[in-house]
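User: hey, got a sec? need Fbxw2 protein folded
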Amino acid sequence: MERKDFETWLDNISVTFLSLTDLQKNETLDHLISLSGAVQLRHLSNNLETLLKRDFLKLLPLELSFYLLKWLDPQTLLTCCLVSKQWNKVISACTEVWQTACKNLGWQIDDSVQDSLHWKKVYLKAILRMKQLEDHEAFETSSLIGHSARVYALYYKDGLLCTGSDDLSAKLWDVSTGQCVYGIQTHTSAAVKFDEQKLVTGSFDNTVACWEWSSGARTQHFRGHTGAGVFSFFKNLYSYFSHAL
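Assistant: Yep! Here you go:
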């Protein structure tokens, strides 16, 4: 068949095909497929994927793509970023999506920052830190070994940690090195506070005592509580205030 005659025939067939019902169209296609050889079937197979699996993020306007993406949760969006470079580019460029994801994690968002990659990185860092917290890997840990009984009291200040124990001692530790700076004999401590020269302890014996780090001597001893022990106190310029249970 000549090319011109073929085009005329194809136009007529197309008009007729479009006038058929869906069922008739399906039957027509089934019949044509049954008449096709290997070359035609291979051609059909190669083109079906393109026709059926259209990339909507490429075809839709960017604003409409952003609107649809807002309905997905962040974890799904991160998975979608792995589909292709195009998907990753479009999803990463949606500022509102990543700002909302950060807000849902409890972040205070500065809406004036419209850098989508910035908010995506903030979200990813937050998720990583939450995963590390869940797996107990968010912080480096170390053990301070020195007490021979249970530790009841802790107080941290300026890189130093004070511990009070049931072994009738209190120790001051350098957290960065793990070394014990001072160790003195005390009563059983339920609460501790310290400065460079002295230690103040609240005890299960309902007393509050002051101690010198350098000598280990008790310089003051306060009695008066009758509860289960002194568990908290604070000091102003001239006085100590304590609280017992």
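Quick note: The domain at 151-243 is CATH 2.40.10.480 (Thrombin, subunit H). Let me know if you need anything else on Fbxw2 protein.
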